[in-house]
Design goal:
52 residues, two-stranded antiparallel sheet, 2 strands, 27% helix
Length: 52
C-alpha cells in the first residue's frame, strides 16, 4: 500500500510504500489505521496545479 506520510513545500504528498507476504492484507490495514491515527491526512488535499 502507499500512504501519504509527508508533504513537500509545494503541498504534494510524499508517499511511503509498504508490502507484506501473500494474504497479509490485515497487517497492512492495521498499520494504515495506526499511522493515520498518529498522523491524520484526511484533511490534506494536494493542489490541483503546481507551477514549476
Amino acid at each position: 500500500m502507499s500512504l501519504p506520510l509527508g508533504w513537500k513545500d509545494d503541498g504534494l504528498p510524499i508517499r511511503v510504500h509498504f508490502a507484506t507476504a501473500l494474504h497479509g492484507d490485515r497487517i497492512l490495514l492495521a498499520l494504515a489505521g495506526q499511522l493515520e491515527r498518529a498522523r491524520p491526512w484526511v484533511h490534506r488535499v494536494p493542489p490541483l496545479f503546481v507551477s514549476r
